[in-house]
Amino acid sequence: MTDREQRTEEFIELRPLLFSIAYRILGSAAEAEDVVQEAWLRYASADAVVEAPRAFLTTVVTRLAVDVLRSARARREQYVGQWLPEPILTDDPDGPEARAELTESISMASLLLLERLTPLERAVFVLREVFDVDYAEIAEAVERSEDACRQLASRARRHMARQRPRFDADQHDRQALTERFMAAFREGDVEGLRRLLAAEVTMVGDGGGKAPSLPRPVAGREKVASLLASVGPPMVSIGVTLQLREVNGAPGLITRAEEGTIVNVVVIEVVDGHIQTIRSISNPDKLRHLGAVSDIWRLKDEFQKARRAAREESDTST
């Protein structure tokens, strides 16, 4: 086996781990893929013998991800509307995120908490708390002393612990509740939706200025139920379908247009048997890694026509 072939095999084996690290540091699947690809180019072209491929690649990915995150911070401060992480599908039992502890660390709520850390705190926390990397290797990756890394990890751990999200653990119960939610949404069943939503439920949308979305979060059972009930039937009438998937370790929905393209991805967080948070990502830039994306502006026009027709029919019948 040539050196190139050996490095290729080693990289393929480590690639899921490298992506998992980069995605948690960045909250962006597309940026994580770019970082992992750049790490491969550096590994493949390294002149020296690499004695420890895992440590070498982890170091390269971490440094690249921290650099990307620093530049991304400025872009996110100017982002149009609510910024949410890019969704990834986690319902593959053989996938890199299948273990329960990894799934929790990749939840939307956890990734949003990580956004509040500095890039170095985030990198150190991910390496130590999620992947149990030893401090000597972390110090090499972030170019800080071991003592400095311990301090960074301690600060990050305290911050995460203070606001650690709480979710219902039983996957079967969460899925059953999400299926009832889908049915009530399709039918525009306000009362059915009310029964499923927590009193303080919040619904958040991320269109990034590139797709229709909620201009601001909607809070409270009555407001969210009414909004969802008014949206569901018109969407169904224009051929939109809902596909139940696990997204970032939580129940989720992929909304597809009649031709099968992706309209948006919805992530649902369940606490104490009720839906606590609904996050909808429609920014096409955050969905392309999952497949072909719909022309959502065309769909919006069709949706509005269907909604007007439904209102006119309701007015006529009354």
From TrEMBL:
Annotated RNA polymerase sigma factor 70 region 4 type domain residues: 112-160
Single GO BP term: DNA-templated transcription initiation
GO molecular function: DNA binding; sigma factor activity
Keywords for the protein's UniProt record, in alphabetical order: Sigma factor, Transcription, Transcription regulation
Keyword Transcription carried by entry: yes
Alphabetized InterPro entries for the sequence: ECF_Sigma-70_Domain, NTF2-like_dom_sf, RNA_pol_sigma-70_dom, RNA_pol_sigma-70_ECF, RNA_pol_sigma70_r2, RNA_pol_sigma70_r4_t2, RNA_pol_sigma_r2, RNA_pol_sigma_r3/r4-like
Source species, domain of life: Bacteria
Stretches assigned to the RNA polymerase sigma-70 region domain: 13-73
Family to which this protein belongs: Belongs to the sigma-70 factor family. ECF subfamily.
Subunit structure: Interacts transiently with the RNA polymerase catalytic core formed by RpoA, RpoB, RpoC and RpoZ (2 alpha, 1 beta, 1 beta' and 1 omega subunit) to form the RNA polymerase holoenzyme that can initiate transcription.
Record-linked PANTHER family: ECF RNA POLYMERASE SIGMA FACTOR SIGJ, SIGMA 19 FACTOR
Protein name: RNA polymerase sigma-70 factor (ECF subfamily)
Organism (species): Nesterenkonia xinjiangensis
